[in-house]
Amino acid sequence: MSSLPLGTRRGSHGPQARAFSAQLRVELLLLLRQPENLLVILVLPVLLLVFFAGIKVLPSQNGPPIYFLVPGILTLALMSTGMVTLGISTAYQRYYRVLKRLGGTPLRRSTLVLAKAASVLLVELGQVALVLLIAHFGFRWEGKGAWWLLGILLLLGSFTFAAIGLTMAGGLRAELTLGGANGLYILFLVVGGIALPIGQLPTLIQPIARVLPAATFSSSMRAVMEGHGLPLLPFALCLAWAAVSGLAAVTLFRWE
Amino acid sequence: MTAAAPSGSAISLVGVSKSYGDRVVVADLSLEVEIGELVAVVGPNGAGKTTTIEMIEGYRRPDRGTIRVLQCDPAGDTGRVRPLVGLMLQEGGIYPTIKVGEVMRLFSSYFQDPEPGEALLERVGLLEKADRRFRQLSGGEQQRLSLALALVGRPRILFLDEPTAGMDPRARLLTWEIVKENQAQGVTVVLTTHSMEEAERLADRVAILKDGALIAFDSPERLRGGSGPDLLHVELTEPLTPDQLDVVAHLTGVDHVQDRGRGSYDLATSEPAVVAVGLTSWLLERELSFNQIRIGRSSLEEVFLSLTEEAAE
Q1: Cα A55 to Cα A47: distance, rounded to the nearest angstrom
Q2: Residues forming CATH 3.40.50.300 domain(s) in chain B
Q3: SS (H, E, C) A49-68
Q4: For the purposes of burial, counting CB atoms within 10 Å of the CB of A59, is it exposed (0-12), middle (13-18) or buried (19 or more)?
């Protein structure tokens, strides 16, 4: 992906590789340059983790609150990056006709999408590492369960929340995406089993909350991290959300 | 891909139509742009300029008709067309928070053999602002950056959608110079503009669009009609009857009369002063009143206004 020699290649894979690494660099740079992005990507998840792990508002029948919080905060991290940050920044790139302008260059759409996906995954990798390190060194959290299952859930969640963000970005006006993504974020934070168990929500809301993507991912991750393996129903719902949001993004996204 | 022959067709539109819902935006448009030619597309707001240029750029597919850009379908064969064209959108197109130098490097990465970014920034007068973010630039600076980005891939065809809109006079002159320079190197240029001065100064040929139809496509000189300054322009308060027009056409010294519509006529002559005297006394005799009689060539602006008005009736 780094330095390929110029002008020696046949076909166009070479230039696309060069364009990909330049595009990835710019996507990452612009993402991290915005203070509000850093707030939602880093500060908020860490703050919530530390705050709720430090106080005793959570029921402790399943051990220290940190074990409840880590899967929830990991889900929140994916929402922060994929749904909120990617969604809103893409919405404004569409609004300012950046996507249209890029469409007028040899950069392929697939290369652009890959670069965006890679930038999101890199940011999320950093988030996951940060959350786990803080949990481990700050709150004596120890990893349990199958890491590869957690990895699958993180990837699937990353895809799902990014697709939700891109569906809004490509289908709605930029201001609506801004409001919608932030609104969903807060809704998912409250009813998604992130820092507050769903069992503590009003009973009327609970069944709805359980099928929303935030809860299906946080509860699946929680089950995996408690060593139970993938829970059938929540994981099936995760797959369904991934499929639906992916399909929605592909069909509803307008480049202009 | 080898360079196309130095002459031949760079762009060709045959019977191109485009509607949005019930609204016909471009109607049966055919035109050919030669390689190395500079064509200005002008027309009132809503005439279909941007839709036309965006179809040629490959952003939209025509409902009917065919478009070829260097023998390729611009909307279908993007892999071959994109490396050969540079374009400027009417506005925007650049990440608001990206720095000037960063976006130049980014766009350079899209092309096999890009023009050195620093030299381009220098050329458009933005080198010392390489660390500024796009949104901190003035409107004219943003346009110039956009022009530099259009040029970075050493395009064979340049599409500029109102390139000098919002520029101060100095920036506009600089832009004209750069566009001319590129044309001199064999680049084909298609630009849209509202400025007849721009069209007149830059274009080899001017395409006038009205309601999505091509109503004139010729060199600025030919559009203005007449050769040299030997032209008498008359604006009467009432149009002449065909009989009267016939009399005027046979006044001493008049070679040819062109009806510009709404009582406005251009009289081609090699003796404008003689015709002016003859015409004035004839009009006074008939008690026909007039708004002005002027010797000289009609400006492209006048031609544009009269042509687009005529077509409206």
Answers
A1: 12
A2: 9-222
A3: HHHHHHCCCCCCCCCCHHHH
A4: exposed
Cα(A106)–Cα(A76) distance, integer angstroms: 36
B292 — contact with chain A (CB < 8 Å)?
A: no
**Interchain pair A30, B112: CB under 8 A:** no
Residues of B within 8 A of A21 (CB-CB) are 109
| Among candidate residues B150, B131, B157, the one with its CA nearest the CA of residue B39 | B157
CATH (residue range B9-222): 3.40.50.300
Q: Rounded to a whole number, what is the distance in Å from the CA of B142 to chain A's nearest CA?
A: 13
| CA quadruple B45, B50, B51, B53: dihedral, nearest 10 | 140
Contacts of A93 in chain B (CB under 8 A): 95
| Span A88-135, pLDDT tens digits | 999 999 999 999 999 999 999 999 999 999 999 999 999 999 999 999
Q: How far is B153 from chain A (nearest CA, A)?
A: 9
Residues A26, B106: C-beta atoms closer than 8 Å: yes
Cβ contact B221:B227 at 8 Å: yes
Q: How far is CA A246 from the centre of its chain?
A: 13
Contact at CB, B110 and A7, closer than 8 angstroms: no
What is the C-alpha separation between B200 and B206, in angstroms, rounded? 8
Which residues of chain B does CATH 3.30.70 include?
226-297
Question: Two tokens at B125?
Answer: 């007068």
Is the CB of B116 inside 8 Å of chain A's CB atoms?
A: no
| DSSP of B62-106 | -SEEEEEETTB-TTT-HHHHGGGEEEE-SS--S-TTSBHHHHHHH
Q: Which of B51, B84, B109, B132 to mutate to test the interface with A (most CBs of A within 10 A)?
A: B109
Q: Which residues of chain B have a CB within 8 Å of the CB of A103?
A: 59
Considering only alpha carbons, which residue of chain A is nearest residue B153? A105
- Chain A touched by B53 (CB under 8 Å): no
Q: Is the pLDDT of residue B227 over 60?
A: no
Q: Which of A189-193, B4-8, B168-172 has the lowest average pLDDT?
A: B4-8
B20 interface with A at CB cutoff 8 Å: no
Q: For residue range B89-140, what is the model confidence (pLDDT) as tens digits? A: 988 899 999 999 999 999 999 999 999 999 999 999 999 999 999 999 999 9
pLDDT of B1 higher than 60: no
Closest CA to B192 of B203, B181, B184, B180: B203
Reported ipTM: the value is: 0.87
Residues of A in contact with B106 (CB under 8 A): 22-23, 26
Angstrom distance (rounded) from CA A235 to CA B184: 64
Contact residues on chain B for A7, CB-CB shorter than 8 A: 112-113
pLDDT at residue A2, as a whole number? 40
Q: Measured between CB atoms, does A7 come within 8 Å of chain B?
A: yes
Choosing among 3.30.70, 3.40.50, 2.60.120, 1.10.357, the CATH entry for B226-297 is 3.30.70
Strand partners, B269: B254
CA angle B85, B91, B93 (to 5 degrees): 60
